[in-house]
Amino acid sequence: MLRSYFKYRIKAKGAQSIHSPFLFKLYNEVVKFKGNSVSRKCEIDIKSALKSDVLIDASGFGAGSRKKNKPRKVSSIAKLSGSSARWGRFLFAMSEHFGGDTIVELGTNLGIGTSYLSRGNQGSTVHTFEGNVALHNFSSNYFKENQMTNVKSHLGSIQETLPVVLNEQNQVDLVYIDADHTYNATVHFFETLKPHLKNSSVIIFDDIHWSKGMEAAWAKIVKDEAVTLSVDLFFKGIVFFDQGLTKEHFILKH
Ligand SMILES: C[S@@+](CC[C@H](N)C(=O)[O-])C[C@H]1O[C@@H](n2cnc3c(N)ncnc32)[C@H](O)[C@@H]1O
Predict the structure, then answer these.
(1) CA 12 to chain CA mean position, Å
(2) For a substitution probing ligand 1, which of 47, 77, 108, 128 has the most ligand atoms within 8 Å of its CB?
(3) What is the pLDDT of residue 91?
(4) What is the DSSP track for 67-134?
(5) Residues forming a β-bridge with 238
(6) Which of 32, 118, 202, 204 lies 20 to 30 Å from 172, alpha-carbon distance?
(7) pLDDT (0 to 100) of residue 80
């Protein structure tokens, strides 16, 4: 990962080298979004809720999850698996710009990313998926206590629950794939989502350089003929399907 990071740092470009108006707007208004009063309130609420010493067994699902994990404090799960404030602001801005009617988040965990997606666009419904019962219960309570009525939580293996929800929703606007960081699962999630994408849909992938498998999955997705514009921010990748955009790949500083 370190080697990939050095390569990224050498190649990554800033605003001055962006010529496409669409990408320039994306870079300035989303990638470089510094937050507003709503995202800051979201940040404060999350910080105070996740200081908790409550113990949760967060194991069972995804790459890196150890089967015999001991229960851990909510505060330590938040540090290890939850979105940071910096990436939370990015999710908030993505939701604001591209959320449309339906947002899908694969991997709820404690609900940090979900909160930013939910608060970024009150007009969207955020469908969030989690396989671990304790995390599902914790996050569902958090959404309820914080009046995030636009969140719908789905419990179970994503491989089983996602197709059911997609058949009900038909089309999705914004997707955040942040579960099971393996080649097979990432490509499988992408293929499952594909028939439900429209011209304006956008997918964010987490941890695209986390492992060789994730880098291979990202390279395959970028090449997919349905994808037009793709953006590598190292810790996250974004793909667009808008046929009005030229097929191009950008590596941008975050
Ligand atoms: C990195 S965390 C998600 C963090 C969250 N999106 C955020 O931004 O705060 C990944 C979560 O996905 C869940 N997960 C991984 N693979 C899964 C699967 N196949 N089905 C259901 N849940 C899964 C894990 O239990 C874990 O809680």
Answers:
(1) 21
(2) 108
(3) 98
(4) TTPPPEEHHHHHHHHSPPHHHHHHHHHHHHHH--SEEEEE--TTSHHHHHHHHH-TTSEEEEEE--HH
(5) 204, 231
(6) 32
(7) 87
Amino acid at 49: A
For a mutational test of ligand 1's pocket, the pick from 132, 138, 162, i.e. the residue with the most ligand atoms closer than 8 A to its C-beta, is 132
pLDDT digits (tens, 9 = 90+) for 89-126: 999 999 999 999 999 999 999 999 999 999 999 999 99
Question: Cβ of 243: how many Cβ atoms within 10 Å?
Answer: 9
Q: Is the dihedral of CA 88, 89, 95, 98 positive or negative?
A: negative
CA distance to 49, 69, 103, 121, 241, per residue, from 64 (Å):
25, 11, 26, 31, 31
**Do 128 and 111 form a contact (C-beta atoms < 8 A)?**
yes
Does any ligand 1 atom lie closer than 6 A to the CB of residue 88?
Answer: no
* Closest residue by Cα to residue 202 from 61, 95, 114: 95
In the chain the domains, ranked by start, together with CATH numbers, are 2-251 (3.40.50.150)
Q: Quote the pTM value.
A: 0.96
CA of 136 to the centre of ligand 1 (A): 10
| Mean pLDDT in order along the chain per 10 residues (254 residues) | 90 91 96 97 93 90 68 91 93 98 97 98 98 96 96 98 96 98 98 98 97 97 98 98 96 94
